[in-house]
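Regression test attached.
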Amino acid sequence: MSSVLYDVPGPKARRVSLIASIIGGLLILGLLAWVVMTLAQQGIFEGRRWQIFTRADVWRLLGNGLGSTLSAAALAAVIAFPLGLLLCLLRISDAAVIRIPMRIILEFLRGMPVVLMMLFILLGFGTSAFIAVVAGLVLYNAAVFAEIIRAGIQSLPKGQREAGLAIGLTSFKSRMLIELPQAIRRMMPSLVAQMVVLLKDTSLGYIVAYGELLRAVQVMADFLGTQYLFPIFFVAAAIYIAINISVSRIAVWIERRGSRKAAGGVATANTTADLQVGHAGPV
Amino acid sequence: MDVIIENLPLYWEGFLRTLFLSVVSGIFALILGTLLAAARVSPVAALRGFSTVYVEVLRNTPLTIAFFFAAVVLPRLGVKFEQFEVAAIIALSTYTAAFIAEAVRSGVNSVPVGQAEAARSIGMKFSQVLSLIILPQALRTVIPPLINILIALVKNSSVAGAFFVLELFGYGRQLANANGDAVITVLLGTAFFYLLLTVPLGILANTVERKVAIAR
Amino acid sequence: MTTHVPGDALVSLNAVNKHYGQLHVLKDINLQVRKGEVVVVIGPSGSGKSTLCRAINRLETIEGGTITIDGKVLPEEGKELAQLRADVGMVFQSFNLFAHKTILENVTLGPIKVKGVSKTAAEKDAMALLERVGVGHQAPKLPAQLSGGQQQRVAIARALAMKPKVMLFDEPTSALDPEMINEVLDVMVQLAKEGMTMIVVTHEMGFARKAADRVVFMADGQIVEDATPEEFFNNPKSDRAKDFLSKLLTH
């Protein structure tokens, strides 16, 4: 079985590959060893540094931070999706007087950094950090969802809409009953992947002083002493990464389920989320 | 409006610094990302494993964490930077490289295996198969998502402003705090300068996407 | 290493074996093809005929036995393999024309880059080949602009441009619409008449009757029968072959 790039390796190539593998493996292990030793020199591995994890209040603070992250993300996701649907409908409206301004608005929302939007809302409307974070996430992600769903509708066979109109449905009804459901099912992996991006972006709340996980780290390091900075940071980062990976895995699982059901197949999560037409990209 | 006009030099400086951060990080990210992609598809198991782990971890790390690590944790561990821009560039490059690696790998895998088989069947060497057949076709698939990743990079550079770097977001925040009565105007001005970069790039991505689609 | 190469066999497979995991896809294959012979390999799906064809230019690897081409054992890698492949032409079921190159470039790429032929000489030969297969006027176009039948004929020209000793065809017409099959088969029949050594995996019995010197029937990874077309179609010896033919001919 040849792969895209090269033939199945012959004996000489296999030997070279094995040697390179061993050397590469040793180099990487060496690098890791060096990192571990340097850290050890700094006393990172001293027991007392990690003893703070026996304290319940440390875990409580981490838990709160995590909870704040997840609740902001969940709320934003729940609002952003229907809003995205609405924006999408407006964006593909038959009336140019709605469509064109909508396009400009969406370009605007997607073209500026999410953290700027959060700051905007925080300072411009004097809201709490929580509202600023959620609203910023909502606005940005609704715009991205709108584009994803729009791409989904455009990828449908034209005959779907034509058939809908032919049996007497209005344009709106055709969209709602025929096109949107299919587009959403088709783009589900993309949408879920964007949810993961949304979850990651909650950490931007750190910048507007929202009490999410990273801020919890900062607070604890300030309060308990900077010698605990690395251990606390390490654990928080691990939690963040673990949660994101889990949600990503769920996205892949949904994609696998979806491709068996959806008519005409389903876009793959990895490529489409990063490849969205226009601006949408991972933060 | 006056606020914007008065502070135009500041906006402009922020814009240039953001541009600088984006371009430099972008170049490093492209190099690192391509190397990671090559490692990911190489026959050497150790390289493949390392690259896969790197990409998986960084794609699932929030950028703020990466910045925090580079700008706050590293100095605490004894790694000193001349300027915090260096930390910012490290964070942005290593982060973005993971996404570029995935995009490049997807691009290479999107070339139908039959193309390489046909090329090998007429006696081409690996280097010829790669340079004449695979890469030209892979590039066409890879450029639109690469541009999207670069757009994201420009927007992501704003995080640097929260980690001791003076750039557009940082200046915007400063100005907003200094002009409490014209916050919205100030921030709109900031947004404008970001759009100055992201909108043309978006148009470029769309144009390139249409032009290089190879009919199959 | 001495391998038994009977007579003047151009392509020789001896005791070739291959597994895909648990599946034994090639079981003890022995096949000799002499220069100028046209051997058609037929059989039901999953019989291993495509794998056999692809093993001859090492797109598929084998675990046991040897494959010899023109006296040389099939190299496993490197420059030798590339050089051997330059002498073995392959036509794929899915054409596999280089999508980003014009028809002319598709045919000249091999000679220029692999054999070092000059661009003018390569183009002259290429145009002659394209005329010969009937698509000369399509030279400046891109593959996607051609029909399936035209693309496959270009693929044949591309393989011929390397002046191969033997041509392998892996189900060349299976991906074509019915009305285009004949234009490709005509080219292949002509090629056979001109004395090219050909190993053709196909379902097209008409071609086998018209142009084959031998028909090799495969089932479940084994060669079940190896006979002339007349012998095979009129008087199949094995039950498996009888069964296969009866299913076909009831159409």
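Expected vs. actual: identical. DSSP finds nine helices and no strands in chain B.
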